[in-house]
Design goal:
binds UDP-4-deoxy-4-formamido-beta-L-arabinopyranose, binds nicotinamide-adenine-dinucleotide, alpha/beta, 3-stranded mixed sheet, 14 strands, globular, 348 residues
Length: 348
């Protein structure tokens, strides 16, 4: 059984579907601070399986101990965390408190229970301002905002665990997989689950979808003068279902005979960069909808381009992205148009 913290969220819900379809039992722990119980119902609807769902906070060590004592948990995927860069700049304490304490409580409970297989949701943000592209996992790490720093601190904390195992000659060592996501977009092809941001979206794809449906008047394209193909920012967009499948591969590897030795990081992206305007135009063309936009000033903190070298995930996890930009924009639009108010809509 796999414990999925934050499993009601955007990436977590898609991962639950793929885990169940791969034959794993899942147990979800989520405090619903940025998600809805409805996502779990829809995962159940999609898979035809019921999910053990606990509404609770990962910072609550008592809940964790009960879960480890009462369920045959083999590994944990740790999605639970706060993820808004802007909000983290306004309220860093909140971000450090939530993201770091969740992880501390979780690894303590895992150690106490003797369950030492962990997949952690890291981010391409840990590469800071990229010195070279494409980004490989061994490049220098840094943080440019408190959210990114919380991910970096957690990565560092996790890297200390195998060192302690060696010192303590632990009979059962830690196996930790750090998955560094690039830019997750898209939704399940059923249109039943997808990204449901609170308020004004920070990220590009939900902003495009909400503009297309008329909830937002106009997309601001942040910067038209970068040294890129058309002057707009370039990112490595990855379909959330591909990302979810990457988690299944990571769990398969952790639980296999030649599992993960200590801590290993993997980039999860497509390896290809796409500009803002390339994504907007693909969205318009594939979905036959209008997306009014205007070029505005650069957003502070943005880099011109960021994309992954994905060879390590391909060679060592046997994973690579299969879905392209057409799938990303079509599936995002299907989710948005069928659920204009996200999970607060009545079922279609
Ligand atoms: P999300 O907000 O949709 O999901 C996170 C889930 O964690 C939510 O359901 C939320 O309710 C839950 N949660 C938060 N704090 C909790 C706590 N203290 N106890 C229990 N549950 C808690 O976000 P997502 O996009 O699915 O991201 C999942 C993970 O991936 C996060 O750790 C995020 O930082 C990381 N990540 C996301 C992106 C992205 O662009 N979406 C990119 C890189 C990394
Ligand atoms: C993508 C591109 C913007 C909105 C963020 C986090 C990162 C990771 C993924 C969690 C950029 C442009 C955006 C808009 C625009 N999350 N844009 N108009 O900044 O690459 O990464 O999400 O770990 O840590 O920083 O993603 O979707 O915000 O931006 O022009 O309204 O779209 O300038 O070029 P980003 P994004």
């Amino acid at each position: 059984m796999i414990l999925v913290t934050g499993g009601a969220g955007y990436i977590g819900s898609h991962t639950c579907v793929e885990l169940i379809e791969a034959g794993y039992d899942v147990l979800v722990l989520d405090n619903l601070s940025n998600s809805s119980r409805e996502s779990i119902h829809r995962v159940e609807q999609l898979t035809g399986k019921s999910i053990s769902f606990i509404e609770g906070d990962v910072r609550n060590g008592d809940i964790l101990n009960v879960l480890f004592n009462t369920h045959p948990i083999d590994a944990v995927i740790h999605f639970a965390g706060l993820k808004s860069v802007g909000e983290s700049c306004e309220n860093p304490i909140f971000y450090y408190e939530n993201n770091i304490e969740c992880t501390l409580k979780l690894i303590q409970a895992m150690q106490d229970a003797g369950v030492k297989n962990l997949v952690f949701s890291s981010s391409a943000t840990v590469y800071g301002d990229p010195q070279r592209l494409p980004l490989t996992e061994d490049m220098p790490l840094s943080a440019t905002n408190p959210y990114g720093r919380s991910k970096l601190i957690i990565e560092d904390m996790l890297r200390d665990l195998p060192n302690a195992d060696r010192l303590n000659q632990a009979a059962q060592p830690w196996s930790v997989t750090l998955l560094r996501y690039f830019n997750p977009v898209g939704a399940h092809k059923s249109g039943l689950i997808g990204e449901d941001p609170n308020g004004i979206p920070n990220n590009l794809m939900p902003f495009i979808s909400q503009t297309a449906i008329g909830k937002r008047e106009c997309l601001s394209v942040f910067g038209g003068d970068y040294d890129t193909v058309d002057g707009t920012g370039v990112r490595d967009y990855i379909h959330v279902v591909d990302l979810a499948k990457g988690h299944v591969k990571a769990v398969d590897k952790l639980l296999s005979e030649n599992g993960i030795d200590g801590v290993q990081a993997f980039n999860l992206g497509t390896g290809h960069g796409l500009s803002v305007l390339e994504l907007v135009n693909a969205f318009k063309d594939c979905n036959q909808v209008d997306v009014p936009y205007q070029i505005s000033g650069r957003r502070p903190g943005d880099v011109a381009a960021c994309y992954a070298d994905v060879s390590r995930a391909r060679d060592e996890l046997g994973w690579q992205a299969e879905l392209g930009v057409r799938d990303m924009v079509k599936d995002s639009w299907r989710w948005q148009s069928r659920n204009p108010e996200g999970y607060s809509d009545i079922m279609m």
